[in-house]
Amino acid sequence: MEDIYLVMLVALLALAITDLVVGVSNDAINFLNSAIGSKAISMRTILIVASVGVAVGAIFSSGLMEVARKGIFMPGEFYFEEIMIIFMAVMITDVLLLDFFNSLGLPTSTTVSIVFELLGAAVCMAVIKIYKENGGDLALLGDYINTAKATEIIIGILLAVVIAFLIGAFVQYISRLIFSFQFEKKIKYVGAIFGGVSLTAILYFIVIKGLKSVPYITEGTMEYVNTHTLTIVLIGFVIFTAISQFLMSVLKINILKTIIIIGTFALALAFAGNDLVNFIGVPIAAWQSFDLWQSAHAATGVLPSEFAMTGLSGSVPTPEILLVVAGAIMVITLWFSTKARSVVDTGINLSRQGDGVERFEPNWLSRGIVRYSVLFGSAMSTILPASMKRRIDNKFDKPNANLKNRRIDAPAFDMVRASVNLVVASVLISIGTNMKLPLSTTYVTFMVAMGTSLADRAWDRESAVYRVAGVLNVVGGWFVTAIVAFTAAAVFGAIIYFGGPIALAVLIILAIVLVVRSGILHSRKAREEKTKKKFKKSDIITINEITSETSENISNVIGGINKMYSKTVDQLGYYDLSKLKKNYKKIEKLESEVDELKDNIFYFIKSLDEDSVEASKFYILTLDYLQDMVQSIGFITRNSYNHVHNNHKNLKFNQIRDLKKVDDKMQILFDEITETFDNHEFGNINNLLSEKQELMDYVSDLIQKQIERIRTSESSPKNTKLYFGILLETKDLIGSTMNLLQLFQEFYNEARSTNY
């Protein structure tokens, strides 16, 4: 009988390790985005500091493990067998849910997921017990669930969203009024005080309040600290202010960088201390449950279905070795997880200062919020005296950014905002941790970052509607997390209860397969994104760089169109709906690549040196031709898919044959174009242009042949519409391609003749 539970413990251990990996990947946004976004320190330094913070926080996190044992449900109301089912359902759900959000690159809450998973699985088992033992009286459900504690946790999580946003916005607004965006000048006078306040806040909430979690601190020490807290804080403020002034005046160290380093450490420590329960609390509780039952079974022979888990209600210490191992896994994940970088990118993108490629599309709610916020802001500005409004506006005036020196790796925001993000978030999380409330660190850090970006006027009229839509998407995802976590854990719990070991084995295998598959797909996507970086450059300066960049874009787009056209013709001939559907989806990717190029036109023009400004028109026209080409292949692909999807008759054999001949000729031409631009053999463009008329004439002949078919034998208007559409768009595609080649040749010859 013990064997099945030993297998479950091994499975829980494996799921715990997986959960640590996927959980840290998601929660990396909590302590990495401010340091990475400000680029105050190198990535290597960020990871080293965060790793130390995570390791220290993991060791001191044992107090919160009680949440997994008795924070959500009443363990004494469940038998050992039922407790193990609850824990298995929770861990399987958690791994799958977090991995799904990681794959999307969206930050979700590991705290919310674990709380609602425990709630869902416990409610499922409670309902089953009630129907078996009490005739289905659901009014007894409150006897099984720790409603008071669960409600306290849920309300605390929801309040944290609002509080973190408001406090982040308030502190950042005051900080910006003090420093302005010209903080290099003001830092000399108020930097020491700012450093003293920031470091003292971290000292108070993380060191002083966190002492009670350290097992080596005596009661006498804690009593002294609690009695003299104000004195310790004041002394700490004086000492840290003096240290800050010394670092600035004598060692010439930027105090903001120091705060960012210490803040990253503090936030990583707070994260590990607060969130480790989300990853290993359940497996540890399962192991402790097994240990309790095994001891009782050895003494009395009690069965798993008869042993009540009242022992979990007490205080059960967590072995230090488990915390050390968990901390090591978290640190390794930080260094090697690509999904962690994806989630961090989302937070940085939504809080960055200035324009750029927006990830989220606006919706009716984001438009409404921005519209009424603008009206409210206009009304408020009329109330303030003109002199005060001018003084405030001067504080928020950004320095004239030299966009000619703007590189793709420019910081997303400055070090003042990064410091506020780190200090405020670490303080709020530490308060929750020391109150034994598993606050969502994702909610807190994300909403602090959003609040500070709003207060910093990063959401201007150009970007607000996109940023608000992004925040709504992320927050909406949090509510989805709660609903899905509750439902999935309840369903999995029922499956395991009624399906037994076979159902459990199937669910574990399913979880492993889905996580591995997700990892493979994400790696493939990461490789694609790496190559896609070519389309995101905003740091072109000289004519040579323009030529190289443009030829690279032309080669990539034409190569993509070449493959898409050939596949569409082949799949249309085979009447293959599934493959046409894949092409239908891929065309959006090709369109987005060209759209991103056009999004960067502003920065491209600003970044040109004075001798290259005339190249702006060439670059704009190039993108216009590329967009025309993509629109043509998009029309061909979508119409072919819709034709087959609507179950219309396939094209006739002679039509497919003629299209295949066109495809063969275009393959030869486009391969030559791609090779020309890949190898920068631009002298070959004349030969390519000479082939234009021959191909155009061939397509025109096919159009004439189809007209004759209609007059004599053609009987399908849908086939005719599709066939004519493909030929006409093919003609437009060839024309746009040749116009592009001609434009490039003229620009290249002029650039050579003027020695740009």
From TrEMBL:
Keywords: Membrane, Phosphate transport, Transmembrane, Transmembrane helix, Transport. It is a multi-pass membrane protein. It is found in: Membrane. It comes from the Bacteria. One of its GO terms (cellular component) is membrane. One of its GO terms (molecular function) is phosphate transmembrane transporter activity. Belongs to the inorganic phosphate transporter (PiT) (TC 2.A.20) family. One of its GO terms (biological process) is phosphate ion transmembrane transport. The chain crosses the membrane at residues 6-24, 45-63, 83-101, 113-131, 153-175, 187-208, 228-248, 255-272, 321-338, 471-496, 502-520. It comes from Christiangramia forsetii (strain DSM 17595 / CGMCC 1.15422 / KT0803). Signal peptide: none annotated. This is Phosphate transporter. InterPro entries: Phos_transporter.
